[in-house]
Amino acid sequence: MRAILFRFSTYSKFAEKLQNTKFATIYNYETQVKPALSIYESMGFNEQMIFRIFKNRGLSLVKGNTANDIEQLSELFKSRLNAEAKQMRTILFKDPQILSHPIDKMNNYLDLFEKQLQMSKEDILSMLTAYPLLMRNFEVNYENFRNVFNTYAHVSDKQFGQVLVNTPFLFSFNLERIPPNFRVMYNREYKTKEIQELIQKTSEFLALKNHDLDRLLNHYDVLIPNKEVQHQLLINNHKLLLLTPAYMLSPKINLFKEIGLSINQVGQLLQMCPNLFLKSVQTLKLKLKFFEKHMNVKIKDAPYFPHILEFDYWTVLRPRIGDFEQSRECNGQSKNESRRFHQEKYQELLNEAPTKKKVDADFMIRKYHRYCHDRIQLLH
């Protein structure tokens, strides 16, 4: 076997690694490994990707007619979904065992996606590229999950299709957790239409443990007692339903209470800047400490609070605020005049920031940073 592997001269590292796996003792290189390897090379897979595929999915690659299977699958996805070579590489890399599905069965699945679930070709390809493992045991999983979602949320076929597009890894959830979590939502007076809207954006929160979801919603009940307002906030910012258990909400609430905000004010803050509560506890601590201790600023009383806390600490807040102080000294302004000037400029930027992505907001801050820098240079 070693002599055979040395013939694989162009991928010597691959051959060397392969000798240390059980794969090398089971399959014949010339008749089973090499043909499949050539196909993957021709599709643009690099050495590292090929080794990972062979090591983890060797059985699915060497059995049957690999060349014919890949050709048929590629042709099917190209003709039905307009798939390109890059997307086929992604699908095969994530789950080479997709080749074990008969082509006629794959055709039937695509028919179901297009006709029954009313998905567009773009959505189907996006879903399969993101999570091709969706196709494993698809028939059993589809019927089971579709029945649960229909029973508890009364979703139509088209709505369930949207659930799959936005949460393609749905079938990896523990199905037993989903009905109790639906009941948790109904117990909090969520309407069926609200639940449908929420799960179409992401049904990931349904995979949480029942008591974790219940505990998280208890916090929101305290922060925003108005059910209608609370429901709309969570629908528009569905990631807020994923703050447990890895990203706990209560420590963030406590941080804002420590700077003097009441529970009612924290609730208002949540409605104004929901993204703040998605940031890590350590990130928020770092920003609050910077303003309170190093800048000697009562951040809760600042005119640019709370939006300023949405900006990145290292690349936006610390360097820009340092430049503001330098600008004040060079202009000979008093501390109050400088603070008023910079607050006005910050407010101009912050008024635009909430409607734009973080990158755009950061760019606006950097644009103002260059303005300050140019003013300083002119004074010299």
Topology:
Blueprint: H1 2-5, H2 12-18, H3 23-26, H4 29-42, H5 47-62, H6 66-81, H7 85-94, H8 103-116, H9 121-130, H10 138-153, H11 157-166, H12 178-187, H13 192-201, H14 210-223, H15 227-236, H16 250-258, H17 263-272, H18 281-294, H19 313-331, H20 335-352, H21 358-379
Helix pairs in contact: 2-5, 4-5, 7-9, 11-13, 13-15, 19-21, 20-21
Protein described:
The chain is mainly alpha-helical. The protein has a domain of 70 residues. 68% of the residues lie in helices and 0% in strands. The protein is built from 21 helices and no strands. Helix 2 packs across helix 5. The radius of gyration is 28 Å and the shape is globular. The N and C termini lie far apart (75 Å). The N terminus and C terminus are likely disordered.
Keyphrases for this structure?
380 residues, mainly alpha, 21 helices, disordered N terminus, MTERF_sf, MTERF, nucleic acid binding
